Batch of 3 targets.
Target 1
Amino acid sequence: MKEPTLGMIELKSVARGIFVTDAIAKKAQVKILEAHAVQPGKYVILICGEVADVEESLKVGIEIGSDLVINQLFLPYIHRSIIPALKGASEKSKQVKSVGILESFSMVSCVAAADMALKNTPVELLEMRLAKDLGGKAYFIISGELPDVQDSIKVSSDYVRKEGMLTAVEVIPNPHPELIEKGLYW
């Protein structure tokens, strides 16, 4: 798999979410990255694989999820940093010049916005969190040169704002070293 495709379904039922996850896994050759309950009583499924396989599995998942599907995402050729970040494997940057943080009410919007931010300018994804211990919200943190961070945050926040899901956005030029050492990473 050269450039993976990401698929995501957010449901408002845990029971249906588990049922949909089983159907997705049986439909095509996809890898389940995450499938679990999140606050407040929702269920999220993240899969990756080849474009056609992810598309086919998502179609079945959305059909079975029916009116319990809150949101969905089909993102072919996702930026190479997203999937490791979703698995909690983001690398700690040795030199952080500027930081951009985007927080969203929607996990789906957050992932799509992070992909946009990373593809827009040469920034680095430091962290991405989806829903766990966040009351169902999600956020990502990028770093890079200040103009690049500002441009990427603008593009991604415009998208999330248009979706009506923007919680907050911040850009920190030249963050304090203790913030980087103790406060930025979980």
Target 2
Amino acid sequence: MEHFQEESLNEFLVEFLEETLELFTDGITNKLVGCFNQNNNTVDDTADDETGDVVLIRVYGNKTDLLIDRKKETENIRLLHRYGYAPTLYATFRNGLAYEFVPGVTLTPDSCREERVWRLVAKRMAQMHKVRDESVGDCRQPMLPEKIDQFLKLVPQVFSDPAKHSRISQIFPSTDDLRRDFNGLYDRLSQLNSPTVFCHNDLLLGNVIYCADRDQVTFIDYEYAAYNHQAFDIGNHFTEFAGIDEIDYDRYPSKEFQLRWLRVYLEEFNGHENCTDSDVQRLYVQVNQFALASHFLWAVWALIQAEHSTIDFDFIQ
């Protein structure tokens, strides 16, 4: 499918009859469309036999190229596919990409707490954190400060919608104040010495596919994958337990749950079962402090989306 690389996704899709396309999700950043064989116009999330007849098309959200290095994203997918952690990338387009259908269901605020599921997630994250991206050589620097700086520069000083601008001005500090706040936070976080590993960096529940038949989980959407602090990736995932559409911070995992999750993670990450209570406790402290940085990053991201996104979602709320 190399000949599709420079083609517009719209031009590619018109080659298919309308009944062969199905909108799978209407996310808050991108849109995901299933394209399947006309002789098999339904998708069974658990069947293995027919998944080869299905291709997923991800259509990029408006102006998301301001936030995301699309070339690096495709490199990430290919890198992780070589490790067996990502689906096959079939084609890239100016405004999207096509990749292998992954059977299963996305996690929910309930399923992410089920022991058979969260153990798989903890182990897969630990495995991903051991991936080596040789393309960066020895320059394995955490992406967090650079990404925050990039995002803050993209926040409009004046939003194009006057009502939105007024609302945001009443809720959020100025970008200068936000920058000072982050610098103070990051100074403190840096003292925790969280290791730099290859992270997903956006492991919300919708980016985890659980297949009960295969007893496995697959992470998808590697738009923000990069080297970063280990504790950020875990803390970010824990914050996502609260949900997106109906946020409930009472769902944030308890200390008892986190300690169990983190022990499974460390056993996989270290390659042995001899992690100590102090090892788990140290990671627990790091994770919950880096969760603050996760909130900060996605709050600034939301300000940019509030200006540019065409998706019907209240990013300011």
Target 3
Amino acid sequence: MDFHSLQVKTLNKLTPNSVEITFDIPDELKPEFQFKSGQYITLDMDGTRRDYSLCTSPLDGKWSIGIKSVTGGFISKFLNSDLKEGDFLKVSTPNGRFGIPSKPNEKRTILAFAAGSGITPILSIIRYTLQTEKWVNFYLFYSNKTPQDVMFYEDLKKLKAEFPENFHLHLFYTQERLEDWLFEGRLNAHKFELILNQLVDINEVDEALVCGPNEMIKEISNEIFKAGIPKQHIHFELFTTDSNPLDILPEEMDAPDDVQVTVELDGETHEVVWNRGKNLIDAMLDADVDAPYSCKGGICSSCMCKLEEGEVHLAENFVLTDSDIEEGLILACISRPKSDKIRINFDAV
């Protein structure tokens, strides 16, 4: 994972507890920072890493992220309260697989469900899709506590005004009384059923996007699938997990205490001792190998690699598809050794 020191160009306060940060990308780094809508960058602050989705379109010539301050999150609190324009941050090049294929010559319908800061990658996808697909119908169902908590409210209104026939914006509030009770409450299975009955014909839907808390993603994604949308057309991105995915792995696993693993990374070969009590990322860091990582919880793709030899225990993840796993792809942060000889290749993905 490549990091660069980037200067903060502008700060835009979105809500009392969220901010949009725009970076100044030097011309010589712009090729490295080209991105696809839906991708994220990683900030490294004194060794602690956090992922933040880009909220701009690749066509905007602008690199911005949206950050909501969370309880106990010292990085998000610092970025919202103490960061100044002109400051420098250690920023990775863009990464991630969340998004949908571009189809500018087709007429299609896209559904997007977001809650809170989950709007950030979806906003990037909305912008790019509206810019490139003149026949698209893009429905956004976005939930927040109150109108004052809506990130990018002005941006969403401008998009609605610019693309009135293509962009269908629906805002939901969990702590606000409204004339139409349909838009009160959380996005859940019951609300999804009401949306299908009143706002969308599911038979016309081609792609669906979901981004937000774990519970919402699982419930809405499941309802979309039950409504008839194929699994490969349901795309989701999780921002936080409820627990450490490695906690669900059995304590007693049929594997030696220490395994010799060969790791291919950035054109170099490393021999690493991997203890079954650790994930691969920690084993690599212990061996002074600059492992690519960010979330360390199976919710981003920074540590994706290919298992070329041997077997591993892979905990629950929120990134890999069934076909990815069949191809031998794993996430190093939620993998533990199963066989006594293992070969991993980060350069093969």
